[in-house]
Amino acid sequence: MIGRTNGRAVSITGLGVYVPERVLSNAELERLVDTTDEWIVSRTGIRERRIAAPEQAMSDLALPAAREALEQAGVRGEDLDLVIVATVTPDMSFPATAAILADAIGANDAAAYDLSAGCTGFMYALAQAYGMLAGGLAARALVVGGDVLSKILDWDDRSTLVLFGDGAGAVVIERTDEGGFLGFELGADGGGGENLWLPGSGSRVFEDPDRFVKMNGREVFKFATRAMVTSAEAILDECGKTVEDIDVYVPHQANVRIIDHAVKRLGVPEERVVVNVDRYGNTSSGSIPLALADAVDDGRLGRGKLALLTGMGAGLTWGSTLIEWTIETNGAAA
Asked: Do residues 310 and 2 touch, judged by C-beta distance below 8 A?
């Protein structure tokens, strides 16, 4: 699906992020599995990642990120109509992590639910929140993207262990006077789902499931390099924009080789590309909000800037959006 927004200005008015304290370096991984720092960096660009403490669940990562986003937006939890948590690692199957989070921040009357779209979850959730606000069903929403992937990794499997980390980001979304989301492009290819999946985690019966992430790295890489480019090109064309119009490119942080491929194909100048996969690894739905926060912190993303966001992940899913940023560098929204 693809489409421009309907002319109603809806934008991000608050942004917050959180990563666990523990840093897991490539040097430490060398002692756990048959790998080296050189091998990991050359193939992924990752040098370290954050790992949640044993007692930390998804809602524990979401809560500080949500509080920071609410504070920046000047919004209280009780002012929210909608809370969406995009994650593949919820606290539990039910109740929804979003409901747990809504209770923690005092959003007692808000609709709250989890969304599962792999690493593209944050993009899907942004589109849903936009639709609710533009359609008049809600006035303020909180969207959280994040995962605690360390809980579902096989710590003896080099092919997945080196790639992923834990982290979360949150945004407050409100109607604004100008700017905001210009359009969305979303899609899925369920036929490729078995290339990145978690067998045994639901109602489908598997023989001796270990409930660890399974990935066909070669096929996922081929999908990612294609989807990152075609999704970005599609939303640019739909919204009548070109790469030259983009001030900041925020791709999903899965692998620096995937990002480099997309940057080269799209022709985005390197100085406009946000890359933090070296510090966080692939945090799934937390990837794009963490990268947005870095772009704000280093001054590349400010009010009036046009940002292109593109994600891809398990499902297999993909999604892009264009947004004219409406938050001043001092935290004030338009």
From this structure: no
Distance, CA of 64 to CA of 34 (rounded, Å): 35
Per-residue tokens: 105: 């921040």
Number of H helices, E strands in the chain: 10, 14
Which residues are marked as active site?
119, 252, 282
Nearest to 310 by CA among 257, 266, 245, 244: 266
Instruction: Note the pLDDT of residue 207.
Output: 82
Other CB atoms within 10 A of residue 18 CB: 25
Per-residue CA distances from 241 to 36, 154, 273, 302 (Å):
42, 43, 17, 19
In whole angstroms, how far apart are CA 43 and each of 25, 39, 257?
A: 15, 6, 7
Please return the burial class of 264, using the count of CB atoms within 10 Å of its CB with bins 0-12, 13-18 and 19+. Answer: exposed
pLDDT at 37 over 90: yes
Rounded CA-CA distance 261/250 in Å is 14
Give yes or no for residue 331 having a pLDDT over 60.
no
Contact between residue 274 and residue 250 where contact means Cβ atoms under 8 Å apart: yes
The amino acid present at 45, given as its one-letter code, is G
- Assess contact for 16 and 66: CB atoms under 8 A: yes
Nearest alpha-carbon partner for 324 in 252, 247, 269, 263: 247
pTM of the model: 0.96
Give kind and range of the element (H or E) at residue 21.
none
User: Quick one: pLDDT at residue 77?
Assistant: 98
Q: Name residue, tokens 């926060």.
A: 293
Chain position carrying tokens 């996969």:
277
- If phi > 0 it is left, if psi is from -120 to 50 it is alpha, else beta; for residue 42 that is alpha
Measure Cα distances from 59 to 85, 114, 166, 222, 322 in Å. Answer: 9, 11, 12, 33, 28
Task: Give mean pLDDT, residues 191-212.
Answer: 90
Interatomic CA distance for residues 235 and 82, integer angstroms? 26
Beta strands per DSSP E along 33-110: 48-51, 82-86
Residue 248 has pLDDT above 90, yes or no: yes
